[in-house]
Design goal:
CATH superfamily of the largest domain: 2-enoyl-CoA Hydratase, Chain A, domain 1
Helix content: 40-55%
Largest sheet: 8 strands, mixed
Number of strands: 24
Structural class: alpha/beta
């Protein structure tokens, strides 16, 4: 009777909680619909766009609950595709006089993403319209974007974090040894740079990994310094001296060094904008957000018959359906096949932002892309990452376009099987026993691999690596030997990748679209984005419990959540992997 009452009460509580969750969802939907009907944005003459970028993703979300963050209203999500289109439209809009960069909110986005936004800001600025930037504290990423501005202003008690570029890697080997967990790692031949497995093998970076990281970080930092120093009329040598000495942390010193133009409070910046616009009262200051202005931007060539399809491949590569944050081989392959068969689509731009993942899933996507290339132009646009599996699905394209700050290459594969025998037996006192019909039926995680089993897996890894190399060789018109020399798991910056033949040109997604249009010989076309985004309400309901769990974990673990997530991801790896060491944190 006691248990009956307990379970009955639990069921009632569950029903009540579910009812309120559904009620909140319904209220949000109705509220969103009402707000969209009631609020019509009109762009008045003499308007300034207020740009805040707390979180930047590849593609603007349809999901009205995409920003759901347990009451955190600062977690606004902006899609790179919408940011670029909006700034482009503002450039030629006579009503828009300038941009205000709320730089203190620039907290996310990979280095290639920031490069794209910065280029859009530079193009906007080239029209003669003004850009003002203000922050209490400038992160290095925020300053990189803000350095294009006419006027950079910092709070009197603030700072500018210019310190150069570094990376920290987390290593688990000593902890695993203490726990009695052995990680059995099988890498491809000559994959000395394939460092995704190093955290489980060593307690520090290998010589090869340190070498590759210094090369690509040096390339990326050199690109950033050239742009920042150039826009601020500071020599590269002086800018690096400022970074080495941390002088920009002091606002007064930063102004002396021309890192900033003014030390002031927000109200003073607002007053400067009013003076620039020649208005006196706050009520006459027309300032709208990037999102608000985006709702007024009309799509180009909406009636054009010809189309160019942008297929977004964003996230880790896995077998199955995937979603807008995970590259599912089935979903992407279907999108490519559909675009191939659609006669109105004259070219395909594959937008890749992926550190890789399953080699098998990458192969499935690669095959569909090869078929598509036979009937229409295929151009790849690389985002922050297009490495390992991300390069695997890019290598066959007619043209590959990357940002200077893109991380690409990493041509290599590996397999990884943990052995918990010592942990289970010696630490926990748990033993296992087995029966099997054949010699190698059981290759589980409670026994070490036999020499024969290891050799068998090694042969599979070698076979997949050789296939990877041959795909690249065929797609890039190289010999397999030449690919192997620049492969071996090594990561390259976009700038360096052009020099060694892995990338054709430097540029953003607009450059890739332009190349695709030229290859297809079409001048007037409209853009269609694929795959179709998942129904927002259906996805929210399906993922509600998981989303809440993730948000709670993120709030509880803070900056260490990424390490927890990394371990979970590696735990769930199936089959041979082609992926980056994505636990790497670049600052």
């Amino acid at each position: 009777m006691k248990n009956f009452l307990k379970y009955t009460l639990a069921t009632i509580v569950g029903i009540v909680i579910s009812f309120f969750v559904v009620l909140l969802i319904a209220a949000g939907i109705i509220g969103g619909i009402s707000a969209s009907k009631e609020k019509t944005i009109t762009v008045k003459p003499n308007t300034v766009i207020n740009i805040s970028l707390p979180k930047v993703v590849e593609r603007q979300a349809l999901n009205p609950f995409a920003d759901f963050d347990l009451g955190n209203k600062k977690n606004t999500v902006e899609g790179l595709n919408r940011i670029l289109k909006t700034i482009e439209a503002a450039k030629t809009d006579d009503n828009i006089k300038g941009l205000y960069l709320n730089a203190g909110t620039f907290n996310s986005g990979g280095l290639a993403t920031l490069e794209s936004i910065r280029q859009a800001l530079t193009d906007f600025h080239s029209t003669g319209k003004f850009i003002y930037a203000y922050a209490e504290i400038y992160s290095q990423k925020a300053y990189y974007l803000s350095s294009v501005a006419d006027k950079i202003v910092v709070n009197p008690a603030g700072s500018i974090d210019i310190k150069g570029m570094g990376a920290q890697l987390l290593f688990f080997k000593n902890a695993l040894d203490r726990l009695g967990v052995q990680v059995q790692i099988i890498r491809g031949p000559n994959n000395k740079f394939k460092s995704a497995v190093e955290p489980f093998m060593y307690d520090k970076m290998s010589k090869a990994n340190r070498e590759q990281m210094m090369v690509f970080m040096g390339s990326i930092w050199g690109n950033m310094v050239n742009q920042m120093a150039g826009d601020r009329n500071i020599s590269v040598e002086k800018f690096n001296e400022i970074a080495d000495s941390l002088w920009a942390n002091n606002p007064v010193k930063a102004k002396e060094l021309h890192i900033v133009d003014q030390i002031a409070y927000y109200d003073q910046v607002k007053q400067a904008i009013k003076e620039k616009l020649e208005v006196k009262k706050d009520k006459d200051l027309n300032m709208i957000s990037l999102g608000e202005y985006a709702t007024t931007v009309k799509r180009k060539n909406i009636t054009a018959k010809n189309k160019i399809a942008i297929i977004y491949a964003v996230g880790e590569i896995k077998s199955g359906e995937g979603n807008d944050k995970i590259i599912g081989s089935e979903r992407i392959a279907k999108a490519v096949a559909k675009a191939r068969k659609d006669s109105s689509i004259k070219a395909i731009v594959l937008r890749v932002n992926s550190p890789g993942g399953s080699a098998l899933a990458s192969e499935v996507i690669w095959r569909e892309l090869v078929l598509a290339k036979k009937v229409k132009p295929l151009v790849v646009s690389m985002g922050d990452y297009a490495a390992s599996g991300g390069y695997f699905i890019s290598c066959m394209a007619d043209k590959i376009v990357a940002e200077p700050n893109t991380l690409t290459g990493s041509i290599g594969v590996f397999g990884m099987i943990p052995n918990f025998k010592k942990l289970m037996n010696d630490k926990l006192g748990i033993t296992t026993d087995e029966v099997a019909t054949n010699s190698n039926t059981i290759m589980g995680v409670f026994n070490p691999l036999t020499p024969y089993q290891r050799k068998s897996i090694q042969n599979s890894v070698v076979r997949v690596y050789n296939a990877f190399v041959n795909h690249v060789a065929q797609g890039r018109n190289m010999t397999p030997a030449d690919v192997d020399k620049i492969g071996q798991g090594r990561v390259w910056s976009g700038s360096n990748a052009v020099k060694i033949g892995l990338v054709d040109e430097l540029g953003d997604i607009n450059k890739a679209i332009e190349i695709a249009a030229n290859l297809a010989n079409v001048k007037k076309y409209k853009i269609v984005e694929r795959p179709a985004r998942i129904n927002p309400i259906e996805e929210f309901v399906k993922q509600f419990g998981n989303n809440v769990k993730i948000k709670l974990m993120q709030n509880e673990l803070g900056q260490t959540y990424k390490y927890y997530n990394y371990l979970k991801t590696m735990e769930n790896c199936n089959g041979i992997q082609a992926r980056l060491p994505f636990i790497m944190e670049i600052n």
